[in-house]
Amino acid sequence: MIKSTSVIENPMTQAEAVAMANEIVRLEAVVKELKNQLKAYVETNGSVETNDQIWDFNESVSWNFPGDKLKEIMTMIALDGYNPWELISLSKRSLDKLGWNDDILKQYGEKKVIKRFASKKK
Predict the structure, then answer these.
(1) Phi, psi for residue 4 in degrees, rounded to 5
(2) Does residue 81 sit within a domain?
(3) What does the record list as coiled-coil region(s) (predicted)?
(4) What phi and psi values does residue 55 have, to the nearest 5 degrees?
(5) Domains: count for the chain
(6) Angle (nearest 5°) at CA 32 between 47 and 30
(7) How far is CA 68 from CA 81, 88, 93, 99, 118, in A?
(8) Cβ atoms of residues 105 and 111 within 8 Å
(9) Which domain holds residue 80?
């Protein structure tokens, strides 16, 4: 088992880091396959309960409003006494469709950047 520490006692070499990254990719592929097999089991037989978890299908709900209905719902929110503009946000995908650069966007809001450790294809 890999020792988890916040400070690396003996820094690893580049070759060790590459080997570790390759092992993570292999393990993630194994986990993905195991999850697919468990998913198939749960589809057929129902949820699986372990010591501290229940594996089952959980719903994720979202709503999509067409433009004209979005205007109506914003009006309803305002009539209920809320500021509708504090309740909505624009996704990065929506902003990208506008083609506006950061200089334009920062006139209206603050850019939030989150660093996420992950791999991506070359």
Answers:
(1) -100, 115
(2) yes
(3) 17-51
(4) -95, 120
(5) 2
(6) 115
(7) 21, 16, 20, 23, 39
(8) yes
(9) 67-105
- The pTM is what? 0.65
| Encoded tokens for 104 | 């334009």
With respect to residue 61, please indicate whether it lies within any of the assigned structural domains: no
Region of 81 (left: φ > 0; alpha: ψ -120 to 50; beta: rest) is left
5 vs 19, more confident: 19
Domain assignment present for 22: yes
Q: Which of 3-12, 79-88, 105-114 has the lowest mean pLDDT?
A: 3-12
Which tokens go with 49? 């309960």
User: Final residue of a domain: which of 5, 23, 49?
Assistant: 49
Residue 54, classed as helix, strand or coil, is: strand
Instruction: Please indicate, yes or no, if residue 34 is contained in any of the structural domains.
Output: yes
